[in-house]
Amino acid sequence: MSVSRMAKTLSAPLALLPLILAKPLSAGEVTGLTTFVPNTPALAEEVNGNFDSVKSAVDDNDQRITDLEAKMLDGAVSLSAFAFSEWQASTNPNRNCHMRRLQNYAYFLLPEAFSSSCSMTAPVHLPQGATVTGLSCLVDDAMYGTTADSHFYPVTLRQLDLTTADTTGILATGTTSSNVGVQTLTATPFDPEAPELVIDNTQYAYTLMVSADYAGDVAPAVDGNTLKMHGCTVTYSLP
Length: 239
Description:
The chain is of the alpha+beta class. The chain folds into two domains: 70 residues; 164 residues, Jelly Rolls (Sandwich), CATH 2.60.120. It is 21% helix and 33% strand. It is built from two helices and twelve strands. The strands form three sheets. Strands 2, 5, 7, 8, 9 and 11 form a six-stranded antiparallel β-sheet that branches. The protein has a four-stranded antiparallel β-sheet with strand order 1-12-6-10. It has a two-stranded antiparallel ribbon with strand order 3-4. A hairpin with a 5-residue loop joins strand 8 and strand 9.
């Protein structure tokens, strides 16, 4: 092939090269390019070398963006005990449930709460379109296995339908606190693709409910903070 034909053949790819280089790159930098002189024949290996350098930089950027997106796919919202408030079931609430916050936990006062089920709730703000993947709460049960055995009920993530006012539990932890001392109650979706696990802030508001069930033979001398709730975490993935 003559030099003039080679120059014509390579002129089109060379014309595209500035356009490729003009695209914004978020990470990798294009290096090692050959600078061509006007009216001078371009060697195929030099042109291919430039394209190889551009491809290497673009591939590097693509991998960095992929890695960044992978890191952004998973997230979590955590609530301390101080985000919770006492929940009342009706206009005639259980007068035995008096919630208190102390240090880094929340609890219900005893002996008022004996033979009672008491609850606390907190709003949860999750990203629109996220899918809930898990729920966990750190609690401390000092009454498990005693004669006055009391325990935490399932911790429930609930959605309030803002068109009907109906409230539905969409994810709950294990049945009760089942050990003595500090422990984590956890939950993972039985059906990870359940539609209610996809956050829709246009129709629903979301809350966490933590409930404690106190035995009827709780001694009056027992302190209420024998059942402590420290905080909860809701994990999610983004589409």
